[in-house]
């Protein structure tokens, strides 16, 4: 009987400690914000419609990032994007920001296909800027981690266009 209760007790302890370990592990993960890792200091809008509304209201361009959680290229770009201070600052101060893990109904946001990662700009007059493209002719709106300087230039271009056109 003694042996039996010792065994039962140790099994109970194992069960409790593994549950505890799982609870602690779960707790340590930062709460999922709208940033999804693209920049926690940035104020993100939740939907494309909200983004358009805010762009018009604030007279700032909307930057739309299409990405997927299990896409290694998205993860690599996200890391470079989140670590770049200039991008983070511009995104926070000069843009309405949206990152999406699903497609929108606006076909203008996928002029050359629905691939990820894809970054597009929409100006405050709600025009999708198909003229602000990345470096690759086969996927016009994709960027790789080494293209961060190019993305910064395109963000500045989106801001300049507003000043000159509107």
UniProtKB/TrEMBL annotation:
Record GO terms (molecular function): dystroglycan binding
Signal peptide from the UniProt entry: 1-23
Keywords: Signal
CC per GO annotation: endoplasmic reticulum
Pfam families associated with the record: Thioredoxin_7 (PF13899)
Domain of life of the source: Eukaryota
PANTHER family: ANTERIOR GRADIENT PROTEIN 3, ANTERIOR GRADIENT PROTEIN-RELATED
Family affiliation: Belongs to the AGR family.
Name of the protein described by the UniProt record: AGR3 protein
Source organism of this protein record: Grus americana
Encoding gene (name): Agr3
């Amino acid at each position: 009987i003694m042996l039996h209760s010792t065994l039962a007790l140790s099994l109970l302890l194992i069960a409790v400690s593994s549950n505890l370990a799982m609870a602690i592990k779960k707790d340590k993960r930062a709460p999922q914000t709208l940033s999804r890792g693209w920049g926690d200091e940035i104020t993100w809008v939740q939907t494309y419609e909200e983004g358009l509304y805010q762009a018009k209201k604030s007279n700032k361009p909307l930057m739309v990032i299409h990405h997927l959680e299990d896409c290694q290229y998205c993860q690599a770009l996200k890391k470079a994007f989140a670590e770049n201070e200039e991008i983070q600052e511009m995104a926070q101060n000069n843009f309405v920001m949206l990152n999406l893990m699903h497609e929108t109904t606006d076909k203008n946001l996928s002029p050359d296909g629905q691939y990820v990662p894809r970054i597009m700009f929409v100006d405050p007059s709600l025009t999708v800027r198909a003229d602000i493209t990345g470096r690759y002719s086969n996927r016009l709106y994709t960027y790789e981690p080494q293209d961060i300087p190019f993305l910064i230039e395109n963000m500045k271009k989106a801001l300049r266009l507003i000043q000159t056109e509107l």
